[in-house]
Request: fold
Amino acid sequence: MTAPAKLLSDLLSYIVEQAKEINPEEFRLAGSTLFKKEQSQLTGMPGVRLDVQGQGDHLWLVVDRMAEIPPPVAFLATEPLARLVTVADDPDRPPGLNPEALQAAVAAEGRVPE
Reply:
């Protein structure tokens, strides 16, 4: 494609996208493969509120922020191998092995405990 033709094509694509923002009827969700749900599927879900009348504004969907909860300490304290696992408070950090506890277990039993 020549440079002027490419520029014209890009300009027309830009105009089409702007028309979608200006006229929401031009944007159709039917062909979308992204997350889409109907009101009946969202009604009653925890932390999801529909048709909320706010201060001078009407919100059709409100999703509450999830509350942070600590890892299940009771489970970790009762399992025999729990001392070998470290669990961080940060959900982005995966559980890991506790090297000191692993070395102590191997020294005590002569092998990795089951």
